[in-house]
Amino acid sequence: MKLLEERIQTDGRVLGTEVLKVDNFLNHQVDPALMQAMGNEFARLFATEKIDKVLTVESSGIAPAVFAALALNVPMVFARKKQSLTLSGDHYVADVYSFTKQETNHILVDKRFIQPGERLLLIDDFLANGQAVAGMLQIASDAGATVVGAGIVIEKTFQKGRALLDEQGVRVESLARITAFENGQVVFADESPV
Ligand code: 5GP
């Protein structure tokens, strides 16, 4: 998505060889117009699918996910993160190792908010090693829901996540695909036509 790639070029900051900071438009300060354009694009990409709900993980998935849900006219559910957990049986739970924070969190969704048979679109801000999406896949599976695919704002193709999801047959649609960070610059997989 051209608009997003341009924004990454102007406002993204590369940290080392693996991390991109986008906290001035995506995950701390948020640009609603850009989020809305991205939500519309996710809805367009998955237009042929029947989707009942959008599922994401707090906090940085929420902004793009809510606009995708708005465009699809369905509810959005976000998994909550907890570091420690006393299990009550009311929640679906998965473990997610955070690549940027180097810690494991539990993510949980109240069982009332995903019903068996529902068709879910997963959304996240980044695809790195695929742990966040894998956690959402586990929750969907435990709930007896079907995942129609994963909509990712920024995919880093040089990390393991994409291969992991391809192996599991999960459809992945990414709005920007980054192949490398070179000398503090972002290298995109291809120039997006849209
Ligand atoms: P994964 O679970 O695919 O390994 O990593 C995805 C999660 O880690 C995302 O939800 C995102 O919050 C965080 N993340 C991964 N890579 C980056 C990055 O380069 N920049 C930022 N800001 N977050 C990232």
UniProtKB/TrEMBL annotation:
Annotated binding of 5-phospho-alpha-D-ribose 1-diphosphate, by residue: 128-132
Associated pathway: Purine metabolism; XMP biosynthesis via salvage pathway; XMP from xanthine: step 1/1
Compartments in which it is found: Cytoplasm
Gene Ontology CC annotations of this record: cytoplasm
Entry keyword set: Cytoplasm, Glycosyltransferase, Purine salvage, Transferase
GO biological process per UniProt: purine ribonucleoside salvage; xanthine metabolic process; XMP salvage
Entry keyword annotation includes Repeat: no
EC number per UniProt: 2.4.2.22
Keyword match Cytoplasm: yes
Domain Phosphoribosyltransferase stretches: 36-157
Pfam family, one: Pribosyltran
GO MF terms, alphabetically ordered: xanthine phosphoribosyltransferase activity
Main EC class the enzyme belongs to: transferase
HAMAP family: XPRTase
Record's subunit section: Homodimer.
Known function: Converts the preformed base xanthine, a product of nucleic acid breakdown, to xanthosine 5'-monophosphate (XMP), so it can be reused for RNA or DNA synthesis.
Name the UniProt record assigns to this protein: Xanthine phosphoribosyltransferase
